[in-house]
Amino acid sequence: MTLRNRFTLISSLSFGIVSIITFLVIFFAYYDSTKISYFEKLRNTALISAIYYLEKDELPKDRHAQIKKEYNHLIQNNRVAVYNQNNEVTFGQNLNDENIKPFHLKAARNNKGTEFMSDNQFYYGIFYPDNQGDFVVFVKSPNDSFRSQILRLSIIMFSVLIIGLLAIYFLSRYLSKIVYKPISNVVERINSVDYSNISTAITSTNTNDEIEELIKSYNKLLGRISENVLLQQNFINYVSHEFKTPLAAISGNLEVFAQKDRTPEEYRTVAKESLENVYEIESILNNLLLMSGMTKLEASHKPVRMDELIWKIYEKLEPRAKEKNSSLKIDLQVTKPGLLEFPGNETLLYLALYNIVENAIKYSHDHPVVITLLEKNQYLNIEVRDQGKGISPEDLLKVSETFYRGKNVDNIKGSGIGLSLSKSIFDNHNIKMKIDSTVNVGTSVMLAFPSGL
């Protein structure tokens, strides 16, 4: 069921239910008030009938004649019955009325009055003590007029209900068309999107309502999908390029090596080069597997001493820095030991920092790389600074994207995964990473840690 039809159905049902409840309340209120009014009129008629029949001997003849003249249209003998103490009709012509039972007479005497309906008649009886004895005066009146009023009211209410339902149905259809037109427009825009270029966002309505929020959410989702598609495309290009180089080197070396017998030294050289290429492929695959499972890592955080972690990285990469005629230095400026403890996954933090420091050494160009641990606003900060070739402003915007490498990397080997992987790990630990760089001056990576233990 479409939203428009659902809106129409709900509106019609709501109006119908409210109208029926309202009409029922009005109907029963009118029914009771009309019935009370009829019984009140019968009570007055019963009282006038009692005066007419029982006070005849006490009233002057002219007064009695006047009453008879004024109320003759109300007092009809065939509708009046005056019962004595023996439950016998002494006045009136309403004899042997089967609807008036002894218990009705008893109720009238005990309660000074009684009323009931039977056989399309209204009955009202009053107890009237007189000098001639105690009497019960019953009068009746047909309820044709009452039923006619109730029937007319029912017809009017039913007609109003039907007309109202039809009116609310067509009004709801019209309003739903207006209300859901923006949604229909959004659907049309979505269907008209060229899926060969899904990064194209649909235009905003600038209405500052829920439709605007829907469009923003859709564009945000479309952007994420576009990024994932682009990431897949880059992954294919990356695999075809990065894997092809070491595999070609391995196959080329083995093909040349197989053409004739080689010395043991040549065997060792080719084996070493092949292993290096295999290790490079293995490293790339391990990083890819780690990135793919980053969001599935459980919160296995425990206190980690960041200074000790930095020293482990120093011991691992200091020899490599020396190979590049560079050096690795650690500058510890933290005065509060508690800041050096941070809850996290030690392996992941080691890998992330290792990638940052390794990149700094790669591009340091014979200059030292300095790792500084400092306090800033009562929080731990770690800065990795090099004096290498730097990163251009254009590349700096994309340098943390997966597989992306700067244009000035020249022939320095890399996969474009390390920095992206580090950023994912830092994001997982709520660590903010900021990169500042100037071409041919150097690069600074600042890590701002959140509150620790």
Q: What does it look like?
A:
- The two termini are 54 Å apart.
- The chain has helices at 3-54, 61-71, 102-111, 144-179, 181-191, 210-257, 264-292, 306-323, 346-362, 393-396, 418-428, and strands spanning 80-83, 89-91, 113-118, 121-130, 133-142, 302-305, 328-332, 341-344, 369-376, 379-386, 432-438, 442-448.
- The protein has a five-stranded antiparallel beta sheet with strand order 2-1-5-4-3. The protein has a five-stranded mixed beta sheet with strand order 7-9-10-12-11. Strands 6-8 form a two-stranded antiparallel ribbon.
- The protein is of the alpha+beta class and 453 residues long.
- Helix content is 55%, strand content 17%.
- It is built from eleven helices and twelve strands.
Annotation keywords:
five-stranded antiparallel beta sheet, five-stranded mixed beta sheet, rod-shaped
Can you give the helix content as a percent range?
Answer: 40-55%
Poorly predicted parts: none
| β-strand number | 12
Global morphology: rod-shaped
Q: Specify Rg, calculated over alpha carbons.
A: 50 Å
What's the mean pLDDT score? 79
Structural class: alpha+beta
Query: How many individual helices?
Result: 11
